[in-house]
Design the sequence.
């Protein structure tokens, strides 16, 4: 059987030739992402800002009557709702701020949920309530802080490990590409205004894991080649390493994409945002391993000497003996 | 690298088999096949986000425990000093401490002596629960220490978890999860529960029942303004404002009894008015106290107080000696039933407040699972085809390893009783990615080594050896990340981390160790001179 070969055997693409323009583009994209996050803001779910979210499916309608709903819910006197589609066009979520004083008296938020669901069911016979989430302000702050802390600590610890196993420049490179990946994903969420909830944090963690995996594979090859080719200039050595791992990069990314596209197209709507984030992460993560993690090693002046094993006293004795001194 | 002694081969297969077998109950539970009940069935439970149900996070207020302790100390100190015949005055239990004046300054030392045993820690820490300070010569101030409060909160929470469990069991819901979380929270998860209203009503009720004597000396005008005579307090009616009755009533602080010494509480209907009431039966001790209270106060009204609100204030017509009583108070059948359950399960030692609540409908859950299964199936199939056409025989090994990997993850999750949630599925996706990547790395490396002119066996050996380094580093970093996420993250982040940690272990085992075993056996058997790779 003739096997499929997506990448020819000996590629020699000068990836690193474009490192400066690509870096500029990356930095600009990151800046744009931050700009978007700061100006448009993330569409934070009740997990992070507190409040109430009621999910409704209109079983016999092709499209949810968003406009009508907005008016109906607003008339109930609990303030303006944020109504959003998720997944299919007949599935929506209604988000409300918790009523004044609900932090002390949870019965108030209960009453609001009951009033709204009863009203929706009364006005729309085919409405099916799929779920109600109520998160108090205090808990939401904690959830947000916990997620942030877990993400930050994990990233730092991973960078420290890479520093130990490789060199400090690699640790910085890995950390930088993590920041790059997370920033661009946040940027996408700010741009599309898809809802950002705790599940998306899990997606973010997945893409960090994937991107890290990719970065380490490239770094491992760089480390190997640094030991093998002492005299080779860094840009050339990085190109060689990226080319040598290119087949693996393509095959692995494609494998992940195959599963993810299946989940995107056929999977349940609830995880659409989540799968979309991971899918984007595959592209961003692969790109960042090549164009963020690798070139930084040139600028941070990694050289083959970093990987010359330091001689122990015993080894020195043996060497001197061998050399007949 | 390619040598596998027989014992090792047996060991590897045994481990694989055990884990994979443990996955069987989880897989059959998604189909209609039923396993014989006699077999042990470790099963992966689906999280509420997938299966539907209610999740409620309850929080206690520690300041309430503090106030309760101070009030309790107030009573003990009064009793103790009364017994010793020492007069005190200007007693105040507000502002987070208990303070009082000893009228005879000469007795300060005697007071200290008397109250010292009351302030010793009940715990094993040896620390005092209270600090005693004396100001201006004869003013005692007793302040509860943080250690004492923490311990009291912790005990209260332990009791609260038990009470919550009893109440939920009384509802007859199946497989509820009730876990204490942190210092002052309780998580309640009930799969399949669609309307958590009843549950919340039940848990929102502290069910602290008290019987106190009504202070008939209080002037109605004072009561209306919230001013109580000395030694009394104003308690509002539960149904204040309805029917034009008095909004509040003055009751004596002391001399009442608590309604926590019960053996039973049942909802029934009043025979005359047919309105729902709750019948309570005291235990021997409670019955004796109740008998004493009613005997000594015949002809006077007493108030039945639930959670700080007066339900009713009937006259004591005759001593009640039978050890049972009837509580009425404009109940509905539902609220009377809830009160009966609450009283049976005991009062909550602290008020619990719902701070987070999530309900997922069953349709959404079932729909999600079905679609998720189809998507996973199609995705896995497409992935298998892709790997097969890319790596041939080595691809077959990779695919079998992948299937075993999935089985092992499910098996181990079932054995340790983890719940699979949506973020857990993300962990699954990442692990499968990592497993595939390990095989891709190995196979690409073998290709490379062949191109460099190595012989088959040497190339395979080098391939595994060289690729293992990157696989090792990548997986260790993921383990580090997962461990930190598990330690510091909450809910979904934790769920993700658990699956990731299990998955990393199994994927290294299946994708590296098992495939190496198969490749080694094949090489020994077939002795190929070239690889189709």
Sequence:
């Amino acid at each position: 059987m003739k096997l499929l070969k997506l990448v020819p055997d000996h590629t020699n693409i000068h990836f690193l030739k474009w490192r400066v323009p690509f870096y500029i583009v990356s930095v600009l994209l990151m800046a744009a992402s931050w700009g978007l996050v700061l100006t448009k803001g993330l569409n934070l779910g009740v997990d992070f800002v507190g409040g109430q979210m009621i999910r409704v499916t209109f079983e016999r309608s092709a499209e949810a009557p968003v406009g009508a709903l907005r008016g109906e819910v607003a008339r109930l006197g609990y303030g303006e709702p944020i109504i959003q589609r998720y997944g299919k066009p007949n599935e929506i979520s209604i988000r409300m701020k918790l009523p004044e004083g609900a932090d002390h008296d949870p019965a108030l938020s209960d009453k609001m949920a009951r009033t709204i669901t009863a009203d929706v069911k009364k006005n729309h016979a085919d409405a099916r309530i799929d779920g109600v989430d109520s998160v108090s302000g205090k808990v939401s702050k904690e959830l947000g802080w916990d997620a942030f802390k877990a993400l930050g600590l994990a990233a730092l610890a991973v960078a420290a490990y890479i520093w130990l196993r490789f060199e400090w420049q690699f640790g910085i490179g890995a950390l930088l590409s993590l920041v790059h990946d997370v920033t661009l994903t946040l940027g996408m969420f700010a741009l599309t205004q898809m809802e950002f909830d705790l599940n998306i944090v899990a997606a973010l963690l997945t893409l960090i894991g994937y991107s890290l995996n990719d970065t380490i594979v490239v770094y491992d090859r760089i480390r190997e080649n640094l030991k093998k080719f002492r005299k080779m200039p860094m840009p050339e050595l990085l190109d060689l390493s990226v080319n040598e791992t290119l087949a693996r990069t393509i095959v692995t990314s494609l494998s992940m994409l195959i599963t993810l596209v299946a989940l995107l197209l056929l999977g349940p709507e609830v995880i659409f945002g989540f799968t979309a984030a991971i899918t984007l992460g595959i592209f961003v993560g692969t790109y960042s391993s090549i164009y963020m993690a690798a070139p930084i090693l040139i600028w941070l002046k990694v050289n083959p000497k970093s990987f010359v094993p330091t001689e122990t006293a015993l080894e020195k004795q043996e060497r001197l003996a061998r050399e007949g001194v | 690298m390619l040598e596998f002694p027989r014992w090792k081969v047996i060991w590897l297969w045994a481990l694989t088999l055990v884990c994979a077998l443990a996955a069987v109950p989880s897989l059959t539970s998604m189909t209609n096949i039923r396993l014989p009940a006699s077999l042990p069935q470790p099963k992966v439970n689906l999280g509420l986000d997938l299966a539907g149900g209610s999740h409620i996070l309850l929080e206690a207020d520690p300041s309430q425990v503090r106030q309760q302790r101070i009030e309790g100390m107030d009573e003990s100190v009064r009793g103790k000093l009364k017994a010793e015949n020492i007069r005190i005055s200007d007693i105040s239990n507000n502002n987070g401490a208990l303070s009082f004046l000893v009228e005879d300054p000469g007795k300060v030392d005697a007071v200290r002596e008397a109250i010292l045993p009351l302030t010793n820690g009940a715990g094993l820490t040896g620390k005092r629960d209270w600090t005693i300070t004396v100001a201006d010569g004869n003013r005692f101030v007793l302040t509860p220490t943080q250690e004492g409060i923490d311990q009291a909160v912790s005990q209260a929470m332990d009791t609260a978890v038990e009470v919550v469990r009893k109440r939920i069991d009384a509802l007859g819901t199946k497989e509820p999860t009730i876990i204490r979380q942190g210092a002052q929270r309780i998580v309640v998860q009930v799969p399949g529960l669609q309307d958590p209203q009843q549950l919340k009503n039940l848990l929102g009720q502290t069910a602290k029942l008290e019987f106190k004597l009504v202070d008939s000396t209080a002037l109605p005008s004072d009561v209306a303004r919230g001013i109580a005579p000395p030694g009394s307090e104003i308690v509002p009616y539960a149904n204040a404002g309805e029917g034009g009755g008095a909004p509040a009533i003055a009751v004596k602080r002391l001399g009442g009894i608590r309604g926590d010494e019960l053996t039973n509480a049942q909802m029934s209907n009043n025979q005359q008015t047919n309105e729902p009431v709750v019948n309570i039966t005291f235990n021997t001790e409670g019955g004796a106290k109740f008998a004493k209270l009613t005997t000594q106060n015949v002809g006077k009204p007493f108030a039945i107080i639930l959670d700080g609100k007066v339900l009713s204030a009937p006259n004591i017509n005759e001593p009640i000696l039978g050890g049972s009583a009837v509580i009425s108070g404009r109940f509905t059948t539902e609220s009377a039933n809830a009160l009966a359950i609450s009283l049976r399960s005991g009062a909550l030692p602290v008020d619990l407040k719902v701070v987070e609540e999530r309900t997922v409908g069953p349709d959404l859950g079932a729909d999600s699972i079905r679609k998720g299964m189809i998507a996973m199936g199609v995705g896995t199939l497409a992935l298998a085809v892709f790997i097969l056409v890319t790596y041939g025989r080595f691809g077959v090994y990779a695919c079998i390893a992948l299937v075993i990997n999935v089985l092992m993850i499910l098996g181990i999750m079932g054995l340790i009783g983890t719940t699979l949630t949506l973020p857990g599925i993300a962990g699954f996706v990442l692990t499968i990615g990592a497993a595939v990547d390990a095989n891709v790395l190995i196979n690409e490396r073998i290709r490379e080594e062949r191109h460099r002119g190595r012989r088959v066996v040497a190339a395979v050996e080098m391939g595994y050896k060289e690729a293992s380094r990157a696989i090792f580093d990548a997986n260790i970093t993921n383990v580090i990340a997962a461990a930190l996420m598990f330690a510091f993250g909450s809910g979904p982040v934790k769920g993700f981390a658990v699956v990731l940690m299990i998955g990393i272990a199994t994927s290294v085992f299946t994708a590296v160790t098992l495939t190496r075993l198969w490749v080694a056996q094949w090489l020994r058997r077939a002795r190929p001179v070239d690889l189709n790779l």
